[in-house]
Design goal:
By secondary structure, this protein is of the alpha/beta class. It contains 13 helices and six strands. It has a six-stranded mixed β-sheet with strand order 5-4-1-2-3-6, with helices on both faces.
């Protein structure tokens, strides 16, 4: 007798994997197991093999596969019964969309994100219709909602100052730099952990990847400056951020821009305003003009995007044995500091 093997299209398989992960995050572990059984079966695993992998009776596995063939994903949801489930009217769907657009806080909840069980609770409370979280996900896709990573917004930022920066301050600085042929430089600092963070990655179902770690909390601290007009990035590595290290960074930048002149824009870090730094800036006022970003506005600084890109493409899911340069003939992995800086055509100051 030939084993039962389902045939899934690549898009369908990816959708089931995504739904399985969502079900796990929502605590619907049995639904996640059933979805995983369908995916593994489409990859050639028989019911008996799935029973061993998923620690479930073979008869149950066969039942899940049969229900998926007949009813699709709906047949795998908790408490599923054949027949059409209760649904929301068009007016109720529009009202639900408005609630979701307003956010959980506006609805009176103490969280900033919507989850499927939470939305199911809202639907039952508002409309008296019971939805399983799996049905909620299907409903949300029909309403053109999707799972997205929220953006952090600093609540202490002043929107008026940010608007003034966008409309008046920054355009004037750009115009002044062009007229005087001065460089327009943006500075920032960042710290990169040697024991780097883990990010999402593709992997075979049931075989999560393993990333070795040292268990150490060492980090590399970088002072960086980007000149957008000529696409230059300057950096200085140090062990701490304070007035002395920032002054050393400015002095090294002066070697490059003293003759040309520059407008330098930095944030409102406390050591930027220390007397040691301010006295140096006053002495070099003839060739260097300094401006500060609006407070609590890191998203305005283009250097921040370099740090984000570096973390995403250079340090996530990576193992760094050390932060020093290895011997020339060493076969060990790329050192931490070299990986960070090699992502750009950097000009060390």
């Amino acid at each position: 007798m030939l084993p039962r093997l389902l045939h899934l299209r690549p898009n369908t398989s990816r959708r089931l994997i995504r739904l399985s992960k969502e079900a796990e995050r929502d605590g619907a572990y049995r639904v996640a197991k059933r979805l995983r059984a369908v995916v593994l079966n489409s990859q050639g695993r028989t019911s008996s093999e799935l029973a061993n992998i998923l620690q479930a009776p073979r008869s149950k596995v066969s039942e899940w596969l049969a229900r998926y063939e007949v009813h699709g994903v709906d047949g795998l949801l908790e408490g599923y019964r054949s027949g059409r489930p209760a649904s929301l009217s068009p007016q109720q769907r529009e009202q639900l969309s408005d609630i979701l657009d307003s956010g959980p806080v506006a609805y009176g909840l103490d969280t900033g994100i919507w989850t499927s069980p939470m939305i199911a609770w809202v639907i039952e409370k508002e409309f008296g219709v019971h939805y399983h979280p799996g049905h909620v996900r299907k409903l949300l896709h029909e309403l053109h909602f999707s799972v997205q990573r929220p953006h952090r917004v600093l609540i202490r930022a002043n929107p008026t100052e940010q608007d003034r920066w966008h409309r008046y301050t920054y355009p004037k600085l750009k115009k002044k730099a062009q007229e005087k042929n001065w460089a327009l430089i943006f500075t920032d600092e960042a710290s990169f952990r040697q024991d780097s963070t883990l990010h999402a990655t593709w992997s075979r179902v049931g075989h999560p990847p393993e990333i070795p770690v040292t268990g150490q909390r060492k980090s590399v601290k970088i002072l960086g400056a980007i000149e957008l007009r000529k696409v230059r990035f300057h950096y200085l590595r140090d062990c701490v951020f304070n007035a002395e290290t920032y002054l050393a960074f400015l002095q090294n930048l002066a070697r490059r821009y003293r003759r040309q002149g520059a407008i330098l824009i930095h944030d409102n870090a406390s050591y930027h305003t220390k007397p040691l730094v301010q006295s140096w800036l006053d002495v070099n006022r003839d060739w260097l003009e300094v401006k500060s970003w609006p407070k609590y506005s890191p998203e305005l600084n283009p250097t921040e995007r370099i740090w984000q890109y570096t973390r995403k493409n250079g340090t996530h899911n990576r193992y760094f044995e050390n932060e020093r340069l290895p011997p020339a003939d060493s076969p060990v992995n790329t050192p931490f500091f070299v990986t960070i800086m090699s992502l750009y055509l950097c000009a060390p100051v």
